[in-house]
Write a structure and sequence with these properties.
about 80 residues, alpha/beta, three-stranded parallel β-sheet, about 35% helix
């Protein structure tokens, strides 16, 4: 990943306070692990976040840190999603 892209990601993580982290393929362990890893980073930065999967995977995840943080429900009534392409 180019340094410029890394700097943009760091800037975004530091500037914003609320995050929705998800994956389009919740049945792949590497995708779930990536969602959880970003959740751990956001937790250390004291950010508000929701780790969302469209459906809970059938595989056992209890060996992954913060696996209990995954949710298949969007609980916020005021959720605004911003996607910058």
């Amino acid at each position: 990943m180019p340094d410029e892209a890394k700097q943009q990601i760091i800037k975004l993580l530091l500037e914003k306070d609320n995050f929705l982290v998800s994956t389009c393929e919740p049945d792949k362990i590497e995708n779930i692990a990536s969602v959880l890893a970003l959740g751990l980073i956001l937790k250390k930065l004291n950010k508000n976040f929701l780790l969302f999967v469209s459906e809970m995977p059938e595989m056992k995840l209890d060996f992954l840190p913060e696996a209990e943080s995954l949710s298949s429900e969007l609980l916020s009534k005021n959720l605004v999603v911003f996607i910058k392409e």
